[in-house]
Amino acid sequence: xxxxxxxxAPGKTNLGLFLGPTREDGLHELVSLIEPLSLADELSLEEIxxxxxxxxxxxxxxxxxxxxALARYRAASxxxxxxxxxxxxxxxxxxxxxxxxxxxxxxxxxxxxQAAGRPHDLLIEQLAPxxxxxxxxxxxxxxxxxxxxxxxxxxxxxxxxxxxLVIPSQERLSTPEVFREADRLGLGRSLxxxxxxxxxxxxxxxxxxxxxxxxxxxxxxxASIDAALAAARAAGADHAFVSGSGxxxxxxxxxxxxxxAAARAADTLRERFPGAVAARPVGHEFAAVGxxxxxxxxxxx
Length: 301
Prior knowledge:
The chain has one domain (5-290): 2-Layer Sandwich (Ribosomal Protein S5, domain 2). The protein is 30% helix and 26% strand. It is built from eight helices and eleven strands. Strands 1, 2, 3, 4, 5, 6 and 11 form a seven-stranded mixed sheet that branches. Strands 8-9-7-10 form a four-stranded antiparallel sheet, with helices on one face. Helix 1 (65-77) runs parallel beside helix 2, helix 1 packs across helix 3 and helix 4 crosses helix 6. The protein starts with a strand and ends in a 10-residue tail after the last strand. 48% of the residues are buried.
């Protein structure tokens, strides 16, 4: 039996998300600065005595994008290695605008490529866009500028030091439903505006770019978001906004002590918002895939 492999799948937030018109394929043009966070799911992949792969995700029901990723890699690569069990320990909120399912799919691709003996397989980059708009940006965690419908990904310099307060919601929002509501509200921008905003984000993040064009649509569908936004601001956040398609709210605390300020805010708010937690930006260290020791810890990469 081969060693069990482990990888982390960080959640993400959008430090600026700008919505454009609908394309011929039904997807929306967008421009966004995506930042992965230390709040992460943990995935492990192990060989099993079976004829088929299986995916286990305790506490989460329904279709699993990581299972699709595993199946598509096998089909596209022709790898016929032993059946695998992919186990996902969820920590990133589900249907919350934090890319949890997309992050799991990206980590699953990294894991199965490693199991196949092809750790740097470029095939996973080809498969990622077909799995979801957020998957390409999460293959190699780090701050990225994305555009198109998410298939174009550019590495960018990290923003100034900051910490983040994450306030999950007990409610869930469907991403397609939020986009439909955005269309109903007429929130889209012109392609010309998107191009201008893309260039500005390439130059660096400024406070006036901390805008999420999907926020009004998410708030329209989930009234409880307003209370979380107000709570984050009252707890001292320099900026508070909806993460992606919501309903998770992010409070951003600038400065070298921003992580400490975010942690204090989470402690203050946890009684009212039980899932409140502090997070920090993460980078390539969260892309590591490694074997699991007997005590459950992974080897250093």
